[in-house]
Write a structure and sequence with these properties.
Number of domains of chain A: 3
CATH architecture of the largest domain in chain A: 3-Layer(aba) Sandwich
Structural class of chain A: alpha/beta
Strand order of the largest sheet of chain B: 3-2-1-4-5-6
Oligomer: heterodimer
CATH topology of the largest domain in chain A: Rossmann fold
CATH class of the largest domain in chain B: Alpha Beta
Helix content of chain B: 55-70%
CATH topology of the largest domain in chain B: Rossmann fold
Strand content of chain B: 5-15%
Distance between the termini of chain A: 46 Å
Number of domains of chain B: 4
Helix content of chain A: 40-55%
Largest sheet of chain B: 6 strands, mixed
Strand order of the largest sheet of chain A: 2-5-8-1-9
Number of strands of chain B: 6
Number of strands of chain A: 9
Amino acid sequence: MFESVEMVQKQLEEQGYICDKRIATVVFLANRLEKPVLVEGPAGVGKTELAKVVAAATGRPLIRLQCYEGLDEAKALYEWEYSKQLLYTQILKEKIGEVMQGTGSLREAAARVGQQDSVFFSEQFIVPRPLMHAITTDEPCALLIDEVDKSDPEFEAFLLEVLSDFQVTVPEIGTFAAKHRPLVFLTSNDAREMSDALKRRCLHLWIDYPDEAAELRILQAKVPGMDQKLAADLVAMMQRLRQLDLKKTPSIAETIDWARALLALNAESLGEQAVRDTMSVILKYEADIRKAQQELSRMMTARAAVTPAAVPTPSAPAATGTPPAPVAPPKKGTLH
Amino acid sequence: MQRKIIEFANLLRKSGLRVSVAEAIDAFQALEELSIDDREVFRDALRASLVKRGDDVPTYDQLFDLYWSGFHDNLKGAFEAAAGALADDGIDMEQLLQKIREMLESGQVPEGEVDLSDLARALLTGDLSELEQMIRAAATQAGVARIENMLQIGFFGRRTLEAMNAEGATRELRDLAARLRAVGMGDAEAEAIGRLAERFFEALRQSVRSFMERELQTRNFEYMEKFRREALFEKSFYSLTEDEIARMREVVNRLAQRIKNVMSIRRRRRKKGKLDLHTMLRRNMARGGMPFELVFKEKRKDRPKLVILCDVSSSVANVSRFMLQFVYSLQECFTKIRSFVFVAELGEVTQVFHDHEVGKAIEEALEGGGVINVYTRSNFGMAFHTFWRDFLSAVDAKTTVLVLGDARNNYNDPKAWCLRDLHNKAKNVIWLNPESPSAWGFGDSVMDKYLPYTTLAEECRNLRQLSRIVDKLVL
């Protein structure tokens, strides 16, 4: 249990998740009000990660439900274990004969069977799926419903009961209410707008790309062995790239990947060559890479012009002596 | 506090955000859990519970600043200024107030004679929250809801002051001075009270004025926002500016998404296949024919295909700009979609849309996408004929053909039989025409010739019509 907004921030930071006050406030409220949180934002800003670290910080096990098109009740809520039921009927055939013994009329036999039917529709034959599992589990847990926007609109209807009352109704048995209300996180990439009914039941959190300072802190927390200057350069570059009109804007996940890639390559500074070689880590489309490289050359030359000595890049020899010459447009199809 | 939150929720609603009562209740609960001293936390807590769409966040932020801009601070500022002014005259306001309060409480003034109004009392005790409440109430009473422009600030301000009887309170304070003098207060101090009353009145006047200004701002904002939205929906495609087209992008995306949703539901209904007895028996042979494993017949996958023909001639340039945006969004939603543009010649732009981001793609398509010459006069007959000749194979029984154009054919041969063949082959032919039906068939319009061969032909001149059509569409 969190005590204050600052505590949330601190505890998440201990788990290696740097967040601003806004995120902390919402997490705190979700915890206090026992309400689900709908987390939206561009891909790779740490939506799923948030759920994971909150689970870790509160010491709850995390139950995860990955949504996709065509996800239905049977895979999200519960399913009757049909073959087990069938198997039991087969095994119990003789027993059924015994039970039926001495019944005179069909009506009487039917009544006798009727008394027993709850045996075959009992909890024993239910396969709980993530949602049901989160409700019926004995210890408090955290439930992550990932990429809820990928599911079909009808699926939201199943969610409503779970999210507002924390219960699951199985028509044959009855209603299972949660022993402990789970902490629920729903994440969405905004592929489709969620219904108002769903939104109304949730607190809403919009996570955007972090600003430069925050991103630097995240990077330092995630990739500890990194050179300060390199990290700062890298983050500045990412911030710059996000300003471009790209098909797929690189996110924090890409920043971290990139940092790791540079570290693996033993790059000491963000030289043009190093950037070119690793560009494919952050940008996923050919057109984006082309656009970014143009921007990059511009940035590099500008920087080289300001502090020629301070930037010992591998490509520096080529640049020295000659004034910032326009770099030849990158060849198409050289990077993937 | 609750009142203010409800009022704020109302303000959000008027600006087009959807805020339900349940969400307002959440906001109360959230504030109970938090200390509201921290403005940022307060703002975030309200946002988390009231605003549920990322797109609405900028509006919310603006309104938050406007609404919670600390009228309280304003009020405080005005009274501090009053105190400052008194200090310049050599009077310490706090001490003076303290003295008055003491004299009142000590009962030196006969009971009944110090029957001060609430306002005067609030002024003397420096109770700013109470004052704020009073100004609010009085402003409501003065009908501030009707304020519309700058010129009315003075009028409503006066009425508000009247409603709270500000002059009365000032007079009371002066009377009080006279009475206090009677029971032994010094002349200088009594005179100071008189000046204090004046300053208070001035501070009050300023506060009311700033309240009015703020009120006007919020109302203006509501008005502007609403107006902008409404206008966007009703405005004819012919007269859209670039900026408006950009703003429409989101709406259009949502429409395209809605089409996809409708279709995915239809597909899912088909999904429940029937029990496949044959396969089931064979597969369960090993279990003595007991049906342990149920086998259903293959789900019939009904993936609809879409072929779009979009007129990009200069007569409908703006409309087609918009339509292309719609087409682009559709193409992102569907896998099986082919897009064509035409003026007289017809060419495929599917790849162009695929390769470029929306703005560039549309520019390219309007320029003919490198496949057609756009600087000719439109000729629907020729375009349809080209399609019939080269691309008819793209159309099958699952295909919906969407034609976007005004059917102004420049008196060329309409070649309606091409569309007829298309109609025979395709599942649906839908025609969206930016002209109103009364103009169809007049002048060089050949819409009437094409009409028999469409499944649905609709006027589509603005967003509202388009969204209505999307609702109607069952592809």
